[in-house]
Amino acid sequence: MARDEAEIHVVILPWLAFGHMTPFLQLSIALAKLRIHVSFISTPRNIQRLPKIPSTLAPFLDLVSFPLPQLQPPAAGLLPENAEATVDVPWEKVQYLKMAYDLLQEPFKNFIAEKLPNWIILDIAPYWASDIARDFNIPTIAYSIMPAVALLFFGPPECLAGEGQRKVRPTPESLTVSPDWIDFESKVTCKHFEAISLHAGLYGKNASGVSDAERAAKIFKSARAMAIRTCPEFEADYLNTYEKVMRKPVIPVGLLPPEQSKDQKTKITQEPWNSIFKWLDQQEPKSVVYVAFGSETKFTKEEIDELAYGIELSGLPFFWVLRKPDWANDTDFHEILPTGFGSRTAGRGIVHIGWAPQWEILAHSSIGGSLYHVGLSSTVESLQYGHSLAFLPFVADQPLNARLLVEKGLGIEVERDELDGKFSRKGIETALRKVMVSEESENVRVRAREAAAFFGDRKLHDNYVRMFAEYLKNGDEQQDKGETKV
């Protein structure tokens, strides 16, 4: 029997990366709009940095703050002060953030014991939450911000850890071929340089004592169902096959295209954004390339130079959002870019160091394409406006996302050295001109505009969230009716 919607309480626990917390918060907001009570758990500083919640949702959405525990000797002092997210630490110190994150299990257990929610929705990191849920007889759902293509490529839980992993993914080279369980033609694989870093990062042990793949395996195996930020209109073959491989409900929650908040509207009327948007207003429609690589990509000086020279050589108008590298001087950001870059591109482009209102920029009529890291959120934000895409992926599921989008004819990947992954200014220039102005790539631009029909269809994606909410209310009864099948 279906529960009264007011009785449904869901606890949501994301990993400490903004590329995870933000889409988890988007799902929380979408569920709260459907009058499902959501407790979203993170740390104080992260909650302060996340987008503000609409006041109308206050009765249904609680932001629950757990202070991040301090690491104890011998690990004490390994995390920088006030570090609560991956953006706050160098890549090599993320393992210590996982150690601190794992210490949240005690306050999490106490919270669950007090609240006894109907469901717990978990990210891929808090493997210990599965045991806590079992102790209190609370079903869990594993929510993936990675699309089904990446989940299917990595395989079911038995292939993520232990003997199964050693059998099917023994070496980095095993990631350069399509796995046996993908029973249709697919070109989605890792390149050699990607496979080396991904194999070590996914299956290798870290300071926390638990590999990323082992974390995911335990969460996926114990989950009642899988929820994925995707839709069958985007990747039906991968989605349907993943459900067969998992042998449990796999529920698309839609792509959750973002909405502009009142807080963001205020920010873009302030400087420097007022001047920047006036500059965008002066550009020709669909002429400007938006360049951004998210909060997690960390470039070397050589890579930034090659990017800059490639953008310059393209001759295209551009707006480049650049995160200040850890190695840059705190007071003189001009050292980040090649000497004379600013003067040579003056009037044709803007480089902004720091945060930017990406959704609002991509929504501007002058933006025609993006050069980016192929994170799913940025993909959704770009394709809902039919922008042409140039891909330069780096970590996690980004390379697999890029291969899927190339497979679908929705963009062009920057050429790189197969062995070391280096890219050149010529490669950047070529990719940009292909997606923006080359006649031979007109079909890519056409397909991108066609994809906007479902990437930007808010009614479509709202309906997937609504079906997911029905699953939360009715459990497996809803799945038995076939109403959430894809």
Please provide a written account of the structure:
GO terms for molecular function: glycosyltransferase activity. Belongs to the UDP-glycosyltransferase family. It comes from Penstemon smallii. The chain has helices at 18-33, 44-49, 94-102, 105-115, 128-135, 148-154, 162-168, 192-203, 212-222, 232-246, 262-267, 273-281, 301-314, 341-344, 358-362, 376-383, 398-407, 425-436, 442-455, 458-474, 476-480, and strands at residues 9-13, 37-42, 61-65, 119-122, 140-144, 225-228, 250-252, 288-292, 318-322, 349-353, 367-372, 388-391, 412-413. The chain is α/β, with parallel strands linked by helices. The protein has 2 domains: 5-257 and 457-480, Rossmann fold (3-Layer(aba) Sandwich); 262-455, Rossmann fold, CATH 3.40.50.2000. It has a 7-stranded parallel sheet, with helices on both faces. A 6-stranded parallel sheet has the order 10-9-8-11-12-13, with helices on both faces. The longest helix has 17 residues, at 458-474. The radius of gyration is 22 Å and the shape is globular.
